[in-house]
Amino acid sequence: MFLIESHNGRARGSRTSFFARIDWTLLLLALPISIAGLVTMQSYGQGSIFFDRQMAWLAIAVALFFFFALLDSSVLKKTNVLVSLFLFFMGLLVLVLVVGHTANGAKSWFSLGGFSVQPSDFVKVILILILAKYFSRRHVAIGQVRHLMISSVYAFIPFTLILLEPDFGVSLIIGLIWLGMALVAGIKKRHLLLLFGIGVVAFFVLWSFVFKPYQKARITTFVSPLSDIHGRGYNAHQAVIAVGSGGFFGKGVGYGTQSRLRFLPEYQTDFIFAAFAEEWGFVGALLLLILYGLLLARILSFALHGETNFESLFAVGIMILFISHILINMGMNIGIMPVTGITLPFISYGGSHLMVEFGSLGILSSMSRRTRHAHPEDLSKEFEGL
Prior knowledge:
The protein is mainly α and 386 residues long. The chain is 65% helix and 3% strand.
């Protein structure tokens, strides 16, 4: 499994050095972002608790990066593997509704001693793998509406289960992943209009029968954020103050008053960008965006030069995942997006999303290695199953 077979049956992996088998660019771009999060957590009194735990999660996440980077990524294209993973995590989503730990109004966590695991984070990557497999086999016939509907079922199942937790933010990410990958795969404009109409109807149904009062309040606060700055709009308002108070160069590490004096809630998770921007200012925020931009550019290069459509679509799905998290999280930190509980990739506190993010980069690294050594007869295996 950890060796890549050449066309004449000999293993190339044994003749390739460890360093040559890793895409170090991905790792060296992601690590500084994670370190920025650690520095932000460490700069506050009780934040050291988060710092110590996040250090442990980061070590596990980096180990996962190397594990998947050295793994033969072709195993992730096998139908039985993908179906098994999909069913397993759907089972976890059902189980978490029964015995899960409730946090911030959502029953979406398994509590394991001093740590918690969120299954929905892993579901995002499983969905990307499933959709990459489905669309890569039907890229010629993707214009047929039935393929659009069938692919939507793969997303609808986790979307519904996660919405029942209820976790509107992660459900939104699931929907964006499916929509983005379907668009790249070749959805027709008329189908997009049909999809938009269905979305409008679904929104009104969700508003009337599914959304909890606090979720409705978040949306109404988004439309008019200053209407309730002492209530539902307090968190977003304090985040905007924190970002603005950072100025050009920031207040310095450990001198962010909004976070240090606890005006800014959840500064280690949802609003860590506001805490970071207050300390590092516009310059620090710009450097963070540059690191994200370089990382996304690297992933885009994988999408453009994938061994097969599967690898390209997987890279596209990971791009959509990261971009969605970045835009939504930063948007809610500067008051232009509703507060949905979406984490900032690599920097927010939490082990589940950190493992998923580094693990995804590891898979991309493995896929890029296969691309460099691809042989024509290997490509025919893409169309097996599903």
